[in-house]
Amino acid sequence: MLFSLEEVIETISAVGVETFDIRTISCGINIMSCTDSDVHKCAEKVYEKVVRVARDLVPTARTLEKKYGIPIVNKRISVTPVSMLANAFTEPTAVPIAIALDNAAKELGIDYIAGFGALIQKGFTRGDQILLNSIPDALCSTDRVCSSVNIGSSQSGINMDGVYRMAEIVKEAAERSRDTNGLACAKLVVFCNAVEDNPFIAGSFLGPGEAEAILNVGISGPGVVRAALERANNLNFGELSELIKKVSFKITRTGELVGREASRMMGIPFGIIDLSLAPTPAEGDSISDILELMGLERTGCHGTTAALAMLNDAVKKGGMMAATYAGGLSGAFIPVTEDAGMCRAIEAGALNIQKLEAMTCVCSVGLDMVAIPGDTPVDVIAGIIADEAAIGMINHKTTACRLIPVPGMKAGDVVDFGGLLGKGPIMEVGRHSPSVFVRRGGRIPAPVHSMKN
Amino acid sequence: MNNNKEQVVITVLGANKPGILAGITRTIADSNVNVEDVSQKIMQDLFALMMMTDFSTANCSFEEFQNRMQAMADQLRVKVFIQHEDVFRYQHRL
Question: Is A7 near chain B, with CB under 8 Å?
């Protein structure tokens, strides 16, 4: 027999008991060809192209789920940053494009579509300004559209005017979606060193260096890693790392298989596998649980950053050999409201925003799905974004903020966004003001190690 | 020698009782799917069966075959998993 019964049962129980799944197949679509000075005509072209190119995405994923017995949780689409098209618009709005994307997602049965964004790490084009001004309206008048804006990079420094503008937009989007607890902000990511091939929503977009269309795969599997750790006791760090690497290899190989097959079936090139452990609010599907199994009393206690660094590194090492092309964000995600274990750690007083910030130095992607008090001033939000961006810029890694200043709520209250976005406590933020600093204007120069040429 | 094989792994798990193997293999035969290898164990009271099959000769679609097998599994009160062999090859073989 080609496989042993034990091997087959291991694969089956990873899905049945340990919540292993392919988190997402994302189809990136270049929409530059849809450009038009008339935003409404452009929107029609965008709708037509997205629906045409991604027509088979959901049926293909369903076929593969049955063929391999592995759930593919999300089928998603990303497009070229819409600001690039907005440069041509006579009318200063990009909202019709968001509505076209929303309609296309609904037509295709896709829950989120991303790329309503801009790359402003060095400055603003006219199209960027149009796009930024449209974000609150776009997020509040659509259900499935996600937006991301890159405000800094290791090569360019940090556009602090962009940081401040994004803080204003976060605040405005929260207020405008007050009746859903600021839900619009759950669909808005502010990046430093954004990657062009990230398959994970909300920060996904098809970068300008990418092909006409591409399929990227995001794996998952915190539950599988947790289950492996539960079965193993008294391992030293070398043995622990080995164990995580083996599990990561297996789950990434499955992603590779699904990506290759989906690519063959759809006739769209396979881009990358994102080697990320992505938690969900489901019990047991938690990064925090893994950290606690590694020997921390509570996530957030001293030692958490080291544990997360080791976990993240082992996942990558195991996954790298399994994937032909690794890319995207590739690291453990630590979204707060989407991870029940993280929420418990906050409620226990073990995890605060300062420790969370430290953790983002060693994993992807940043302060993700962090609910903060609704009365947090714009200046403080700008300070939080600037700190995260600085970590990314100096460490040559991607960092991001997905902050939700929940209107009317204060630290300790619990907010429920529903579904995959989860629920969790409002985190306390610093109350001293960075106003003078964040309002200086201009750009933080690129760090010295950007000069490699 | 059939070079266009489509190898599918069938796994059956459940409480041991008479008739499981008979019921499962009857459905496989009715679908004209060829069994190439069988491995079976009783672990405590758990019945665990794995079969390597060639699906290329089947008289129905993959989905229909899954439905037929699921109906039989429900009748026998066991769990059945029908997966293309690639998923195991990718996970367990370099």
Answer: yes
